[in-house]
């Protein structure tokens, strides 16, 4: 006896697959902004402008002056698992932000996306996709670079739409994403504008491209984002252990916070949220701070890309080290050393 109600196995169609993938990659407007700004950085942009309306729910527009996309490549840019950044043979050796070839396909599945671009030696062209329906490539007007416009995010996934927070909360999350990426890329100029209600809009964050050496540029950028006070109270960190390098700025214990809200950690230039790394930061300050106080720092851990796996999570904010103990040890020892030295300096000079 075979029941009529036996389950049938079906292949999902492209649009359903894209919407499912989008659920992992694009959680909220800020994740869309992150993907688009990372694409602009990967494209070698020196200036990136981000316009948002209603917390990114109705509009996210990212414009860059990067390498652009040739007209014939536009459909491929929107296709799932299509990327110009890796060849698939070496998932351990990733130097770019992107590599999954998933962002534009996902965004085009859950919103209305228009991609306008001009590559050197080509005319400008535009392609549109809405709920995974791709329209033919059209000629467009653009001097150089790329403009990606994403309207009505999640219109195709009403369940996700319901989970969006207030405009204010989503705007705040976008601000945070842009600031983290701006810390990682001091030589790129960033402008974030709120264009809710139309018109010129209001610039909510601006950082001009920094010049000078690594530490000068980073120090200026951090002063811009975390404030002069941080910059004046920050210790320069620069240490290596085996093939790991740690650099950046960490604030004196006297410049701490009541919550762990100003800890910016990067692995190979990628903003990450990682328990092991924040745990190391906490451990380093343990002798210098009471339990209710939290250190403020912007620290960059660089290593050969083969020693860290960034392929753990679709949103790519988690990483896995081949040797976590080495990373932890370097952070703890480098910070303790810098803090002890600063303490020693201020006590011998009778300083602050
Ligand atoms: P990934 O970044 O993982 O490659 P995406 O879906 O984000 O996947 O982008 C697909 C491709 O489209 C990229 O590999 C790149 O070739 C092209 N692309 C996307 N955004 C830009 C941009 N701003 N400038 C130039 N090329 C871009
Ligand atoms: Mg990408």
Automatic annotation (TrEMBL):
One BP annotation, GO: mismatch repair
Nuclease found in the keyword field: yes
Keyword list, A-Z: DNA damage, DNA repair, Endonuclease, Hydrolase, Nuclease
GO molecular function, one term: ATP hydrolysis activity
GO cellular component: mismatch repair complex
Domain DNA mismatch repair protein S5: 222-340
Family: Belongs to the DNA mismatch repair MutL/HexB family.
Function statement: This protein is involved in the repair of mismatches in DNA. It is required for dam-dependent methyl-directed DNA mismatch repair. May act as a 'molecular matchmaker', a protein that promotes the formation of a stable complex between two or more DNA-binding proteins in an ATP-dependent manner without itself being part of a final effector complex.
Protein name per UniProt: DNA mismatch repair protein MutL
Native source species: Pontibaca salina
Organism lineage string: Bacteria, Pseudomonadati, Pseudomonadota, Alphaproteobacteria, Rhodobacterales
């Amino acid at each position: 006896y075979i029941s009529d109600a036996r389950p049938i196995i079906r292949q999902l169609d492209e649009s359903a697959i894209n919407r499912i993938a989008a659920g992992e990659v694009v959680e909220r407007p800020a994740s869309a902004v992150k993907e688009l700004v990372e694409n602009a950085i990967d494209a070698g942009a020196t200036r990136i402008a981000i316009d948002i309306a209603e917390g990114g729910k109705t509009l996210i527009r990212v414009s860059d002056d990067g390498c652009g996309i040739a007209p014939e490549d536009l459909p491929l840019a929107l296709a799932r698992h299509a990327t110009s950044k890796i060849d698939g043979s070496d998932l351990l050796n990733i130097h770019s932000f992107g590599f999954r070839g998933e962002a534009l396909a996902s965004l085009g599945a859950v919103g209305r996306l228009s991609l306008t671009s001009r590559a050197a030696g080509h005319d400008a062209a535009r392609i549109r996709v809405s709920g995974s329906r791709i329209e033919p490539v059209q000629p467009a007007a653009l001097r150089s670079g790329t403009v990606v416009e994403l309207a009505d995010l999640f219109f195709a996934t009403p369940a996700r739409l319901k989970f969006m927070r207030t405009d204010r909360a989503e705007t705040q999350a976008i601000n945070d994403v842009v600031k983290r990426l701006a810390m990682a890329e001091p030589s790129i100029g960033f402008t974030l504008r709120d264009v809710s209600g139309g018109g010129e809009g209001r610039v909510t964050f601006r950082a001009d491209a920094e010049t000078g050496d690594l530490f000068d540029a980073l120090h200026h950028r951090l002063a811009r984002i975390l404030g002069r006070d941080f910059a004046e109270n920050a210790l320069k960190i620069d240490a290596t252990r085996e093939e790991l390098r740690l650099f950046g700025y960490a604030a004196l214990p006297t410049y701490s916070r009541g919550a762990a809200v100003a800890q910016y950690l990067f692995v190979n230039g990628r903003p990450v949220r990682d328990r092991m790394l924040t745990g190391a930061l906490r451990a380093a300050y343990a002798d210098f701070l009471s339990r209710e106080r939290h250190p403020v720092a912007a620290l960059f851990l660089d290593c050969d890309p083969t020693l860290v796996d960034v392929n753990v999570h679709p949103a790519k904010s988690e990483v896995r080290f081949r040797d976590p103990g080495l990373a932890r040890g370097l952070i703890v020892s480098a910070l303790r050393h810098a803090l002890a030295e600063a303490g020693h300096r201020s006590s011998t000079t009778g300083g602050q």
